[in-house]
Specification:
The chain is α+β, with helices and mostly antiparallel strands. Helix content is about 45%, strand content about 15%. β1 and β2 form a beta hairpin. The structure holds zinc ion (2 copies).
Length: about 180
């Protein structure tokens, strides 16, 4: 709703940018102008904003990359939760809680490797990237039902329980014992 400050009977106006004569409803309110209406029509403003955004894109991208580098774990937490939800899982953990779990996790509890994220500002995981694993896959993702493994262990364990994973590793060990430990 445009409340005209002076020319209450102003019905049309010429846009300063496109030069078209347009109904007053095509302009936004601007109290800096005498007639209380902006000099440019809504469409011209929209186009100008889009051009400004496009020209500013490299700078905005650099800013968001820098933010990701400075907030690796928070970015990771937000991505993990998004992926879990996209996969149809219910998550009862906040980004703050998950960020803290990532911050506190120093070593993989299975293989003992020092956890370290990809530090190029991208989310693509590397072998040592910390990643969340549900302890009990039947239960929802809560702060008590999650632990942080290295990406390699997590992608090997998948949705096995720890007992199932143990049995799997034991099977592999027994099968290849003679080959790798000598007869
Ligand atoms: Zn215009
Ligand atoms: Zn590991």
């Amino acid at each position: 709703m445009i409340r005209l400050r002076r020319s209450a009977n102003l019905k049309i106006k010429i846009c300063k940018t496109c030069g078209k004569t347009l109904p007053i409803t095509e302009f936004t309110e601007d109290t800096r102008n005498k007639d209380g209406v902006g000099a440019n029509c809504k469409l011209c403003i929209k186009i100008a904003n889009a051009i400004r955004y496009k020209n500013d894109k490299p700078r905005l991208n650099a800013l968001s990359k820098q933010w990701r580098l400075n907030n690796i774990n928070r970015h990771k937490a937000s991505q993990s939760l998004k992926n879990h939800r996209l996969n149809g899982n219910i998550t009862e953990i906040t980004i703050d809680e998950l960020t803290k779990l990532y911050d506190d996790a120093k070593y993989c509890p299975i293989c003992g490797v020092k956890l370290k994220s990809n530090d190029n500002g991208k989310t693509h995981p590397i072998r040592t990237s910390p990643s969340i694993d549900r302890i009990d896959n039947e239960k929802t993702l809560t702060v008590n039902n999650v632990w942080i493994l290295c990406h390699k262990c997590n992608s090997t364990k998948l949705d096995r329980t720890m007992k199932e994973f143990y049995d799997y590793c034991k099977g592999v060990t027994e099968k290849f014992k003679s080959e790798f430990e000598g007869a």
